[in-house]
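Per reviewer request, we include the raw input and output of the structure prediction for the construct analysed in the revised manuscript.
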Amino acid sequence: MDVKSYTENVLKFIKECSPGQDEFYQASTEVFESLIPILQEDKRYQDNSILERIIMPERTIIFRVTWINDSGKIQTNLGYRVQFNSALGPYKGGLRFHPSVNLGIIKFLGFEQIFKNALTGLGIGGGKGGSNFNPKGKSDAEINRFCQAFMSELYRHIGTTRDIPAGDIGVGAREIGYLFGQYKLLTANFEGVMTGKGVGWGGSFGRKEATGYGSVYFAEHILNRHDNQLKGKICCVSGAGNVATYTIEKLKSMGAIPVTCSDSRGTIYHPKGIDIKTLKAIKEVGRESLEKYAELHPDSTYIPVHKYPEGGHAVWSIPCDIAFPSATQNELTLIDAKNLVKNGCILVNEGANMPTTPQALSYLKENKILFAPAKAANAGGVAVSQLEMAQNASMQHWSFAEVDTKLFAIMKSIFETADETAKEFGQEGNLLMGANIAGFRRVADAMIDEGAV
């Protein structure tokens, strides 16, 4: 069977047995299309049914989470943990608490995580989890009770050499603390079973900043390859969570000018640059709407969601040199891509997981816009998670400078691996293809070595 027919048959099979999981199909299709050159070159992957095996999670866990709200009423949510691939090491990937979470979302994230983790060069497999629980508007006590109920089931399926969850959207330091505390209570073990822990009790310096910082380092490596740099560049960043906040912080420290951030209610445009202290005070301390930012900085503009361009996002209609989509999947549409190209953007650097729609991606490629795919550009978070695991295992505690230096080196290695792999297959500059092939090859070779498991 020719390679194109082979990939199409596997995709058809996965759609038939996993209906209604659009994000998962999107992620699978993007990866499989990139893999055609290596599948044509090396028949071992088809002979060993690698695509059929890599597309199927090794284990999918779905469970009920029952907790009591402040009014004494019993609430019920769904919990998920998809342990996708352990060929390179224990499952590693975050937990997402958001009302949009469903099995398709978790599978897409877990599938992406396989290749992202492989690109780091570290010994970690791919997994993902979460719940359709919404932390917004909940009291600390309600979030604590939910996390305890969630971990009361999850603890059976995780461990330091089995599966090590971390945070994601809706799961920050507070939630990690509540989850870890319950794990410790249930198992009577204090061990590095989760990453993103507090620095004072097993966490790593730099973990909170890692995804955002790593994304900026990756962008700098791309620009340097094209005899350019971040310094002086106008940057648009979407989101106001952990990734966006520390993307903005690192951009400013490197001399760039990040002028936007956004949340579910609207967008802030601050031409002289986002004030990072204000952003942290609003989002990390007060957990308030970005509308508050405009009140504190009258020279900024607040654009509510109902004023966004139809089919697009206000962030991407603002002129910039570099775009950092750092909020959520499929946030950058074809309309947004057209606005970016029209306004002279030279690079789209994905900080979130799969934030660019297929149509937008095609348009950016047609117009020769530099593109940094999420599985490479936002791998900094999981890289420092593994560094946290290493510190826990060796009973060490590294300084922020040590961790940041290691992060910079890892992001440089990821860029060089993706760049060199793209050249190897005659697609110089196509970092999406290079990242997909490089990550796949490392995992697939390990799967062949480990036999039919």
